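Our working data are protein records whose layout never changes between entries. An example says more than a description, so a record of this kind follows.
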Amino acid sequence: MTASNRSSPFAIAQREGASGPLSGIRVLDLSAYIAGPYGCTLLADQGAEVIKVEPPTGDNLRRYPSTLEAESRAFLGVNRSKRGVVLDLKQPDQRAVLMRLVREADVLVHNFRPSVPARLGIDFESLHKLNPRLVYCSVTGYGEQGPMKDKAGYDQVLQTMTGMCTMQGKAGGAPEILYGSVVDYYAAALVAAGVSSALYERERSGEGQLVGVSLLRSALTMQSARMIWAEGEPAAVGRDMRSGGVTGIHPTAEGHLYISANTPRFWQALCARIGLPALADDPRYDTVRKRATHAEVLLPLLHAALATRSALDWEALFGEEVPCAAARQIEDMFDHPQVLAEDMIAALPHPLLGSYRGITRPIVFGRTPGPEPFAAPVFDQDTAAVAALLEPVGGE
């Protein structure tokens, strides 16, 4: 992928280690919270040079609750492998610095509400004139058009609006939030995918373009299997994909175990392993739908069998024959043998914390694995490194 060959202010962002599929691509991350920033982190994981541009007040994620006194755990997890600078885009001289960076950049990502970029003079049309090759990614709550376009959008607000919470809750019960910012993280994946596709298309056309990602699109796209309404159907139809019954989380002698037994093979293996082989061939239970219908009969039998061992013991006993997992704490993942074998965790040196361990390399590339990851920037960390840009732009 061809990046600019002009003298670049991004020299401060040189990465150590192997090249990645996006090495040489230069990204300006003006976004905050999770969706935009983590989308840029995914680009950094693939070798892109990313500069995070924060306002004087900093990314709001820095102020999220954290048991770490010196830093925000959320900010660290979302912003690895970036350089960090502070620019007040309300000040003309500071905007001029950004424009200097834009001339040399390949990608710009922001999550301002649709009315804000034009006020700041950083809307797509303005920056496209300045750098026609720029891929400009706008991350919004509800999109660029329509009556809700300037509303602030947040993960759990969109979960609630789009039906995710009612699906998450128990039948007849109150809606439930799915914690973990799943809408944000899926939007981040769409940011990385959309930007990468636009960069690929730029190889043919030579021109950048606008890439639009919204939390509304993310939340509905995540529910594509539910968002089907056939001609002639009533509005209220069964859209819950949960098979229920045997497939789910169950108590054991110690801890809880998730079991998936939707196929005939897995159902038969489960019955054999828990000592109830007669159930495997019983015609009353030989399909997923039948087992869900007769859950009130099957679950007491299943629970009585599972009560003889711990969740970890059952997990080992089921092995590869029955898809399952003992319910663990996230802390257990740092040293899980499979996670370590896949080299998903790295220790990253940090000026305030000494170091911290975190997830890295969410995608594996065989020939271009990408450079070494590094810690999220402390606030204002690299502003001095671009101070040399201030004098030239003063007279522009």
The chain is about 35% helix and 15% strand. The first strand starts at residue 26 and ends at 29. Residues 20 and 370 are 3 Å apart (CA to CA). The two ends are 31 Å apart (CA to CA).
